[in-house]
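Hi all, long-time lurker, first post. I run a small reading group and we've been trying to get comfortable going from sequence to structure in the token notation. Rather than ask abstract questions, I figured I'd post a concrete chain and ask someone more experienced to write out its structure so we can walk through it together at our next meeting. Sequence below, copied exactly:
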Amino acid sequence: MNIVVLSPRFPFPLDKGDRLTVFHLVKYLSARHRVSLVCFLEPDQDPAWVEKVEPYCKRIECVPLNRLRAAANAAIGIFGATPVQMRYYRDPAMRDTVRRVIDEEKPDVLYSQLIRMSQYSEPHREITRVAAFNLSMTRNHRRLAEHSRRPLARLFNRLEYHKLKHFEGSFASRFDRVLYISKYDVEEAQEHCGPLARVSVIPHGVDFDYFHADETVPRRPSSVIMTGNMNYAPNADAAVFLCREILPLVREALPDVRVSLVGADPGREVRALAEDPSIEVTGRVPDLRDSMNRAEIAVAPIRIGAGLQNKVLEGMSMGLPMVATSVANEGIQAVDGENILLGDTAAEFADRMIELLRDPERRAVLGRAARDFIVRNWSWEKHFGDLEQIMEQLVREKRDEG
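-- Answer (accepted) --
Happy to help. Here is the structure in token form:
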């Protein structure tokens, strides 16, 4: 197949979920198919990163993202019917680039990553169009509105939620196939529009050969790690929840507990947490595994979000005993008490952390079970193989129609 992939960001470095997905998808598909990548290039992205993806693409087209124009587009349309995130990424240069690549490459499949890029593939109905919505943005903004601490953020997310609940399902019905990464995201979309006929659940995965523990590295006693892109609102909320509400309860039993918040671009609120000497905020690190190898347990106290949490997959793949909320585990469906521990309130979460930090044998058993669960269920190849079959079937059907 000849496949054109549309992405909102260049898929490197591998520090955000959409970058991870596009990078591994392009890498997987390139083994048997011709793949072209069309994406926005954000101002802080290094053009040298292109060489990291070039081996897997026959063609790469990058359109610079003009953030000033994008912000103006979003502001103008904030009270309109179109979701703000789609207006933010609405760019005539991208539209023209997509059309030119289609004319020149004549692809069998247009794959668009996230709802914001699907606006560029939707008009080309003569081509098989696969739109990876991944998470229900309706669900995501509903939770953001419920948990945002700042009034303006709460208002914005409430407005975006009301737009999306009317828009998402209707927009999804226009594609040959829409992909979500969990059944819960499908259910949210369908709640507002009725059954969607052309939907598939295609979860993401993790490179468990890469995310493998180095047993020679000594663990720091009473050490806890939380990973993730720290300028992403759900992760920032989780970090504050962990340090301000959960950690004080853990300290009552374990005064020496230490927390590392590891991930790119922490905002002011997250950086301020490091005023406590027992809390480390690292920012971007060269290799996430170095920090994970030194921790005794990993946590994902996510209260906001939808879809699938890569940080949970990566931690479990490293054999780290993981404590998470039910929201963080929603798309993964690990089994509480068997390969993960779950807690939703601050008290529940603290109790599970204390349980693990006090018991080395329990940590070892849970960590091995977590790693085994990932290896059996969460490879990129398993899920992308399913997607590849869907694409091939859709292309055959499109040709038969013609």
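A couple of things your group might point at:
The longest strand covers residues 34-41.
Residues 190 and 226 are 33 Å apart (CA to CA).
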